[in-house]
Amino acid sequence: MSKRSLSSLQLFLVPIIFLILAIGSLAADRLAVPDQNLTPAQIHSIMGKAKAEKLALTRAAYKMAPAGPYNVTNYDVTFYRIELKVDVPTTTIYGNVKMAAKSLVSGLDTVDVDFDATLTIDSIYTDDGSRLNYTFAGYRLTVALDHPYDLDSQFSFTVRYHGTPTTGGFQAFSFAWYGSVPVVSSLSEPYYAHTWWPCKDRPDDKADSLDIFVTCDTALYCASNGTLLDTVNNGDGTKTFSYKVRYPIATYLFSVAISKYAVWRNYYYYGTGDSMEIVYHPYSDLYGYSLSHWAITPYAIGVFANLFGQYPFINEKYGMANFEWGGGMEHQTVTSMSGDWFGYYEPVVVHELSHQWWGDMITCNNWHDIWLNEGFASYCEALYYEVKSGEAQYHSYMAGMDYPYGGTIYIYDTTNVNVIFGSIVYDKGAWVLHMLRHIVGDSTFFDILRTYYNSQYKFKDVTSDQLRELCETVSGKDLAYFFNEWLYGTYRPTYQWTYMNELDPSDGKYWTFVSLEQTQSSPPLVFTMPVDLKFTFSVADTATTTIFNDVRRAVYIFKNDVPPIDMALDPDAWILKTGLKINWKYRLIPFALDSGQQYEPYNDTLIARGGSGSNKFTVISGALPAGLSLDTLSGIISGEPTNYGNFDFRIRANDLYGSYKDSADYRISLIPGVGLPGDANNNGTVNALDITFLINFLYKSGSQPPIRALADPDRSCTINALDITYLINYLYKHGPAPLMGCAK
């Protein structure tokens, strides 16, 4: 017979010595760490996946329950009074839950409440005892209020019910066993609070406060949220624990954990004479183990308080309680922890603690944005080890969260718990914050976190877009590109890079050409990122510069006194990426082409490096300015442009004796010229009238040329008969085109 089916009498008859030996053996097995060198990614995989796996082992009839009615927006919950009686032998709970709320519309006469119809409602009544009508089916309870309520008016009612809760999500409400000891616990994330108590089960409607009363067998102890006010022996084999919560709290963070705990306490000291109690609830046989493994908690609270702001629930407590589930759950002020080695593992203790800031104090508005909870908590693990062990440990820890897989951090499908809590929101979510830190700089990054802590979202909820806007406000940077690509894009950039040096004989310095290409085939095809390049000139001489890469393929140009002997891309791993350094083969070097002036002679040269050194250049899109031409073998662009403006075109270069080719975009900018060379009378054309104009000017006291340079077509810097001859030859004898003169 399974221990789960033992009656309370049978439990009593089990020999005490057998119980002690069995639990001792169980504890020894559970506390054996399978791998002392777990990577952060492995830890987060256990957090996100082992949950459901363990549930599947203990529940043969595991099934998903649908999400609650997220369209309920016509009232705002302000308070719950929750009274629960838990009967272990019959796996039954008896509840009285009062909801107080404010109407958000005029004429509110019915309200929808999330609740599971597998439980039985005994009655629904007002504060004066008047019964209310209701309908109840599936996961929706609709209550007819005693009268219509105006906008902002308050109403309340109490639901009395009983039954055995069904399992949903990771657990919801569980009757389980630790050896032969009963363990009753809740884990409602993401939307399964309604499977065991009536509520508005969505993270964006936090109650301002809770009163909690839990009645259980006198041999058991109940851990719950907030401050323990009293424990009353009822004289009937039960006792009642009363807690109060006076900080806003989301429904999924309300917790009940009941077992035979060996409760112990210590304190977090945060000022002269100021302290907060920390309450630990390990299984009785794990008391000694908990003393050593949970004792880091006060130090860890101090780490995060110094980084972000004071522990958010400083007037209540922090605590942990063992339960029968394969991970940890950040219930507000009382984290639930697996009763095996995992629930005592330092990174897990730190992760769940940090949720008190990011997840509990500030909660994701909806489950699409769960990375705002889990990504932040995972990143806090790295921050903790940075404070504790230094910068190198921080980078090593981040490397352990490398995420090479597809999918988006923004969770489109929120109907499946395992999709919501995939490793991507933990590991890649943490990398988003790591990369953001480098983009905005250390000082600004921690200003962002402290501002976030003290923002309008404190004790409320937030979306990714709202976080982005806050980051932009604090940093003064446009970060839309970053959040869009990393939250909604898939995979990560794959970089290929190379470099070459070339002496510039004009000054004896060296050009360094860096070729960088993104080769990923999934969207986005271009990740826009600042990228660090580290040049090594000697063992003791290095220099790091940052480029802003926003194109798929580019060559960046630098000049140095001496040529670097090596180059590394993103040497400190601030970008979630893959990369490959390759040999230089063949590239167009995108020196900016010279600007020029309409009608003035122009000359500049396209440059390709690599291959055989012999090239063919071709304009493949756009066009050169009229009057300019490209010598396809030398790459020289020359002529006299007849128009002005910005002219964009794309050049392809081919290695004449190999298969190499490359393309690049160029621009020539031309300002308006002073006029058309040879247009002596400045009427916009060169013709016989200009010859007549010059004859009249030189020999018949005619008008002065409006622009003397235009009347000097042979560019002799003097206007004379030779200019007349020059124009006659040009117009009638196929002579050379007029030049822009230099006559003053």
What keyword list fits this structure?
Immunoglobulin-like, single chain, 15 helices, seven-stranded mixed beta sheet, 5 domains, five-stranded mixed beta sheet, Neutral Protease, domain 2
Describe the structure.
- With 744 residues, the chain is of the alpha+beta class.
- The chain has 5 domains: 75-361, tricorn interacting facor f3 domain (Immunoglobulin-like, Sandwich), CATH 2.60.40; 364-488, Neutral Protease, domain 2, CATH 1.10.390; 494-584, Aminopeptidase N, middle-beta domain (Immunoglobulin-like, Sandwich); 589-671, Immunoglobulins (Immunoglobulin-like); 674-744, Type 1 dockerin domain.
- 23% of the residues lie in helices and 33% in strands.
- The strands form 10 sheets. It has a 7-stranded mixed β-sheet, with no helix packed on it.
- β12 (227-233) and β13 (238-245) form a beta hairpin.
- α5 (297-307) crosses α6, α10 (423-440) packs across α11 and α11 packs across α12 (464-475).
- The termini are far apart.
- Mean pLDDT is 91; it is low at 1-23 and 50-69.
